[in-house]
Automatic annotation (TrEMBL):
It comes from Trichinella pseudospiralis (Parasitic roundworm). This is SUMO-conjugating enzyme UBC9. The keyword Amino-acid biosynthesis does not apply. GO terms for molecular function: ATP binding; transferase activity. The keyword Cytoplasm does not apply. The active site is at C101. Belongs to the ubiquitin-conjugating enzyme family. The gene is ubc-9. Signal peptide: none annotated.
Length: 174
């Protein structure tokens, strides 16, 4: 199915589990979701994935297709993966460097049985309803709390900017 570089990637069994979880999410919940492992030296590296995360209908992100990198540490599932928007998006729960601030991804809250599907569902939830308990971007959080009209306008502009065409232009940049 996939060739795995043992030195830089996940162990075969864990890599297969990650693949299966991405496929299961896509089939059940991931309408318009895109996920592919990064190719390095001609081999797919199952520890790094480039995803197209669609904005849910009826939210400020509707119509967006956000480029999200998912990286799994070599000791996954003992440690959580990292979710990184690339380019970063202006969201209260996304750090300016693109890393997603999601309690489930925090080392202290991480549970080894957490699936890719559960993580994407949680991400989808905070995209629609930012988590006030875990702000990561001070400007976006301030606007979200104190200037909701400005926040809504900014998110809609960002959603238009991060569309399929933009995603396609940056997709192969890993």
């Amino acid at each position: 199915m996939f060739q795995v570089d043992q030195k830089k990637s996940l162990p075969d069994e864990v890599g297969r589990q990650v693949c299966e979880q991405f496929v299961a999410y896509k089939k059940k919940d991931g309408f318009n979701f895109i996920a592919n492992p990064v190719t390095k030296n001609g081999q797919e590296d199952l520890s790094e994935w480039v995803c197209g995360f669609p904005g849910r209908k009826g939210t400020l992100w509707e119509g967006a297709l956000l480029k999200l990198k998912v990286t799994f540490p070599s000791n996954y599932p003992v440690e959580p993966p990292a979710f990184i928007f690339d380019p970063p998006i202006p969201h209260p729960n996304v750090y300016p460097n693109g890393y997603v601030c999601l309690s489930m991804l925090d080392q202290t809250n991480w549970k080894q049985g957490t699936t890719v599907s559960q993580l994407f569902k949680a991400l989808d939830k905070i995209m629609a309803h930012p988590d006030r308990e875990n702000p990561a971007n001070a400007v976006a959080f301030f606007e979200f709390c104190e200037r909701p009209e400005k926040y809504n306008e900014r998110m809609r502009k960002a959603a238009k900017k991060f569309n399929f065409v933009q995603f396609a232009k940056t997709y192969n940049t890993g």
